[in-house]
Design brief:
five-stranded antiparallel sheet; mainly beta; 2 domains
Length: about 130
């Protein structure tokens, strides 16, 4: 089961973060996702001319969700990436997620995930037709 955390930013500044589930309630679908073969996708919704950002992040346990909500941990999503010159864009495939302790000196800021591309020189197998 996956657990959702919603975080709000106004004009790029942190406004607040809250868990969308009730602790210990495994019966409600609110703030939960029953994913079988892959994790739910994190989302960012922008409102009022992009001034307000609402991020929804998913975690494997209540403990991880609370730690993220409290600003103690964040995550790094690693992607295999390839720059496709024919369409002038970078194409990505998810590799793994890493949970890290918040450390502002290392650039691991609270309440925001990090997305890291690992560029490949040759066209990867998942893009070949």
């Amino acid at each position: 089961m996956w657990y959702a955390v919603e975080t709000a930013f106004i004009d790029g500044r942190f406004f607040g973060s809250r868990c969308l589930f009730v602790d210990g309630d495994e019966t409600s679908s609110v703030g939960h996702c029953f994913a079988n073969d892959h994790e739910p996708v994190n989302q960012c919704q922008k409102e009022f001319g992009d001034r307000i950002e609402l991020h929804t992040d998913w975690f494997e346990s209540e403990e991880l969700a609370h730690a993220f909500c409290d600003g103690n941990i964040t995550y790094i999503h690693h992607y295999e990436a390839y720059y496709d010159k024919s369409i002038k864009t970078t194409r990505r495939r998810f590799l793994k997620r890493e949970i890290v302790t918040v450390d502002e000196e290392k650039g691991f800021l609270p309440h925001r995930g990090i997305y890291k591309d690992h560029l490949t020189e040759e066209c990867p197998w998942w893009l070949r037709y």
